[in-house]
Write a structure and sequence with these properties.
With 864 residues, the protein is mainly beta. It is 1% helix and 35% strand. It contains 2 helices and 52 strands. A hairpin with a 5-residue loop joins strand 29 and strand 30. It starts with 9 loop residues before the first strand and ends with a strand.
Length: 864
């Protein structure tokens, strides 16, 4: 007989189990159902969650904690815009039925003790939410969640009146002899759905249930008839039970609530506080009695959250012993970007990234030597601090031991003014430390953790650092820059730098960073109707019928975004530059303060000034060297434009001895697969009981060198996957599967930019599988919304459905926008392995965008 051969890797099936979150939507969506009208088990609306996405999760004790993404709320006074929901479940398995669907009257059931005559011992089943008779110790019926009904020894006992009775109510309620629940037997064409199989079988008494009684009637209200199973269930809870007649499924969610009943948003101690828009938790793990959560912090223009201390942006690690209790999480450290290296305290026994706060400094560099300035300041490759490099025989002392080393990726020679005082855009009292040669901030008593031990020792003169002073907010937009080629003003706050009329290439940013007021109207000192051209990126006047000349295509400018208001007839100050003028030929704004009039798109000559003289508020300009920040621990000046190597994190706790490619083969470790918007990268750190995860113990895998290193891999072309096509809004989740001895990673490929040959926004969610973290399969499509026929059914496709505007939360942006699949987070608690058939039963959460809700998904994979 020929030897058997293992069948190849394959996705055998993918199904949507059901929608996990959601609520009703008033008269347009009165039922608690999903777009396919599958009844939901959880009504998230009562605690302020109309819609939500994502769902990083981890097993902690006997519960699975889920950290959802941006919440669409009712925007009540206590709501925090786009904050994040935390919930848990202790269900042992995924439920394969939807919730009950209320119909008809509301019943009030008398409970013991009562003078009402009737049959006693009716109770609420805590598993399915239905009413069943608990008067027979030998028979507890059949529950749609499996096994018998159960009260787990708690809950009231109800008394149900039966005929003949003088009590008012609805007749024809009967006991089912198969499942022991009560059902309405008044419809000869519909006998419901019995969890024991088939339809209900009526026996015994004819009950009369008190319906719609006057206010104050004794008993428990909110009992309803279920339109799918014909049973009686309690509708007074946010969990709608389990109905044997309802399609759908999922599991029961227990939200973490404030005393008011509103969800308690994910938050950390100051200065982070609540995570807001685009600041979602994205990875979680449990170790040594604590839950750890990775969550990102974004700039104010994305997050809509103003943090007075301006902490560093990026991925942080937070922790909490009991996530079921309301309240904040403890901030462990900034995880990515790796912002240098700094002692956490005076003991110098552990190190983290610098903890930067406050102002952003823009240091002049590579300028001719001049009186009143100190040159020779350089960036250290190891600690990322600024140190004085003026003594070839002594390069100071670095936080990472030894002397400072010039960063080869930052060749700038920085220069600071000396002997000056504070003003609106300059901070004085920066000094050189005579022991370590770092630049540090001294105000009063010398302070700051010096790498040599103790505090810094100031020497030499006081030096001054220029900084930003005008903040971007809801009515002001920063990052408008002067173009060194055409002399026009253009928006430099995105990757697209527009088109310059001189060469039709992107504009060249020079000089100040201007901050423009928008959507504030016009008065005697300002002129409105200035707009950004969506084609060339320049600022032009949109108050005339003629729209000037755009260099992108030679046609008129195309207004996009905000309506800006520019002040005119200003007095020049440190924060205001005058002589910005309207060009009478191209309608753009250009700088008219020098003999060079730039380059106009109309005739290739200089711009032609006309009209008012505008004065623009500005900060010091930023160039490729980036900005610098103050560290609250070492008081040093730290470069803060390090690359965020992991915008999303998939953490997995492992036994190191089972994975030969890790830096250590003993003890417990944390494998982290990070995604930086383009590539997937690998990191690892040891975990020790009694010790929090240490930043200074992290190892990063360098794919090109095939080696582990103490600093992240900066190679933009490096990554652990070949031919990867992650989507623009992809997230990543991963786990180690003990059964098949394989790693599995999930991520999305949908993007809002249309790649060549790819359907717009319709990329599938994919998996990759590996035995060793280093050799991975190609992308394996798990859920393809086109292939699975989801569009127009469970996902919105314009012209095919009415998911918008009917299904809450309604989003005007969805009218002409298809949904897309993203946020695939593995549910490790429910994923199982059939070793004999070599079938992986994979459960995961998935977001559809429209509807803005979280789905429970299931895929079966054959793994050879």
């Amino acid at each position: 007989m020929a030897p058997s051969r293992r069948r190849p890797l394959a996705v055998l099936s993918t199904v949507r189990i059901g929608q996990l979150t959601g609520s009703r939507g008033g008269p347009t969506w009165p039922d608690l159902v999903d777009p396919q009208r599958w009844p939901l088990q959880n009504d998230t609306g009562p605690y302020g969650v109309l819609g939500v996405d994502l769902g990083a999760n981890t097993r902690h004790g006997n519960r699975t904690y889920i950290f959802f993404g941006d919440v669409s709320t009712k925007q009540a006074p206590d709501d925090i815009e786009n904050s994040d929901l935390v919930a848990w479940t202790d269900d042992a398995s995924v439920i394969r039925h939807g919730g009950h669907l209320p119909r008809g009257w509301t019943f009030v059931l008398p409970f013991e003790p009562t003078a009402v005559e009737g049959q006693r011992d009716w109770q609420f089943c805590l598993k399915c939410g239905a009413l069943f008779w608990n008067g027979d110790s030998a028979f507890k019926g059949a529950c749609p969640r499996g096994g018998a009904h159960d009260t787990f020894g708690v809950g009231s006992r109800f008394v149900l009146p039966f005929e003949p009775t003088g009590a008012a109510g609805q007749q024809d309620w009967r006991f089912c002899g198969k499942c022991a629940s009560i059902f309405w037997d008044g419809d000869p064409e519909f006998k419901g759905v019995c969890p024991a199989g088939g339809v209900h079988a009526s026996i015994g008494l004819h009950f009369v249930l008190p319906a719609n009684p006057p206010a104050g009637t004794e008993g428990q209200s909110d009992w309803r008839f279920c339109g799918n199973c014909a049973g009686l269930f309690w509708d007074g809870d946010i969990f709608k039970g389990v109905c044997a007649g309802a399609p759908g499924g999922g599991f029961r969610l227990h939200p973490v609530l404030q005393p008011s009943g509103h969800f308690d948003p994910f938050a950390a101690d100051a200065p982070i506080r609540e995570t807001r828009s685009l600041e979602t938790p994205n990875g979680a793990f449990s170790f040594d009695g604590r839950v750890y959560v990775f969550a990102g912090i974004a700039a104010e223009q994305q997050s809509h959250s103003f943090r007075p201390d301006a902490p560093a942006l990026g991925q942080y690690l937070f922790s909490k012993a009991d996530p079921s209790i309301p309240g904040g999480y403890q901030t462990e450290y900034l995880f990515s970007p790796r912002m240098g290296w700094c002692a956490t305290d005076a003991s110098r026994t552990s190190f983290q990234s610098h903890d930067v706060r406050g102002l952003r400094f823009f240091l002049e560099h590579d300028r001719p030597a001049s009186p009143g300035r100190v040159d020779g300041w350089r960036s250290c490759r190891k600690c990322q601090a600024l140190f004085w490099n003026g003594n070839p025989a002594f390069r100071g002392v670095c936080q990472r031991e030894g002397a400072h080393e010039i960063d080869p990726q930052d060749t700038a020679d920085y220069s600071l003014a000396q002997g000056t005082s504070d003003d609106a855009q300059d901070q004085a009292n920066w000094r050189q430390c005579g022991k370590c040669l770092d630049l540090f901030f001294e105000e009063g008593t010398p302070a700051g953790l010096c790498p040599t031990g103790g505090v810094h020792n100031p020497v030499g003169v006081n030096q001054t650092a220029p900084h930003a002073s005008i903040a971007e907010d809801a009515k002001r937009q920063a990052h408008w820059r002067y173009c060194g080629k055409c002399a026009g003003l253009f928006f430099a706050g995105s990757d697209d730098r527009g088109a310059c009329p001189r060469d039709h290439l992107p504009h060249q940013a020079l000089g100040f960073d201007f901050v423009l007021a928008h959507d504030v109207g016009e008065d005697a000192g300002t002129q409105t109707d200035w707009r950004c051209c969506g084609k060339c990126g320049g600022l032009f006047y949109d108050g005339f019928l003629q729209k000037g000349r755009c260099p992108k295509d030679g046609a008129g400018h195309a207004a996009a975004g905000y309506v800006f208001s520019l002040p005119h007839d200003q007095t020049p100050t440190l924060e205001c530059q005058i002589h910005w003028r309207f060009c009478g030929k191209c309608a753009g704004l250009f700088f008219d303060g020098s003999a060079d009039k730039g380059f106009c798109a109309v005739d290739g000559l200089g711009h032609q000034s006309a009209g008012l003289d505008f004065g623009l508020s500005h900060n010091p300009g930023e160039d490729a060297t980036g900005s610098w920040r103050f560290c609250i621990r070492c008081h040093g000046m730290v470069r803060d434009n390090q690359r965020n190597w992991a915008a999303w994190i998939a953490p997995v706790v492992v036994d190191n001895s089972k994975h030969s490619n890790l830096p250590s083969h003993v003890g417990t470790g944390l494998v982290m697969i990070g995604f930086d918007w383009a590539k997937f990268r690998l990191a690892w750190m040891p975990l020790h009981a009694g010790t929090r995860p240490r930043f200074d113990a992290i190892h990063y895998y360098h794919s090109a060198q095939k080696a582990w290193c103490g600093i992240p891999d900066d190679d933009p072309d490096s990554g652990i996957f070949r031919h990867s096509h992650p989507g623009q809004y992809s997230h990543v989740s991963a786990t180690w599967l003990d059964g098949p001895q394989r790693w599995i990673v999930l991520y999305g490929t949908a993007s809002d930019s249309k790649p060549k040959g790819a359907p717009y926004f319709q990329g599938p969610v994919v998996a990759r599988i590996s035995p060793d973290l280093l050799t991975w399969t190609d992308e394996i499509p798990l859920f393809d919304p086109v292939r699975e026929g989801a569009y127009g059914i469970s996902m919105h496709m314009p012209g095919k459905d009415r998911i918008f505007p009917l299904v809450p939360p309604s989003d005007p942006a969805a009218v002409d926008h298809p949904g897309w699949a993203y946020g695939a987070f593995i549910l490790e608690s429910y994923t199982t392995w059939d070793a004999e058939a070599r079938i992986l039963s994979l459960f995961y959460l998935l977001s559809f965008a429209y509807p803005y809700q979280v789905q429970v998904m299931h895929s079966s994979l054959r793994i050879p």
